[in-house]
Write the structure tokens for this entry.
Amino acid sequence: MIKRIIFKRKNNYILKYSLFLLLFIIILYLISFYYFSNREYFVIPKFTDKYFVIPTNKEGEVVDYLDKKSLNNIDNEIQDFDFKNIDELDFTIQLYSNDNFENINKYFYSLLENKKEIIDHEDIFVFYKKTEIGTQYFITYKNYISKNNASEACDLLTIVKSCVILNLQN
């Protein structure tokens, strides 16, 4: 009988300690899970320094290009091409865009030559926009009243891989 009581008591202690250990592990797991799930893994501080500095005291050294807005402001004067007036255009599909007029000219004439059966010359608009960084030339297709109409036409258009719809009234 004494053996039975001692054995029962030992089992009781083992059971109590096992439950206590299990409870401790669960609490430790929940605390660590809460800590690591709400933790920021790394923080990138906001960059507030200047990327470059042009000194006010140049000590006799001349700093070039201080008054330039852009180094690429090259004005291409094209005299022989008849650019379309885009004031009446609402939404149009961009076929090609480039800052080099020679590339625009090549693309335009190859488009008219290769796709003359499916594209009317009157539906193609060639125009340019001047910005501070240079002149950008565009070749676009047709004028649409709304963006939805242009988007529907984009889905059916086979001459471009992906459509870019330009809103020229904004």
In short: The radius of gyration is 36 Å. The first strand starts at residue 91 and ends at 98.
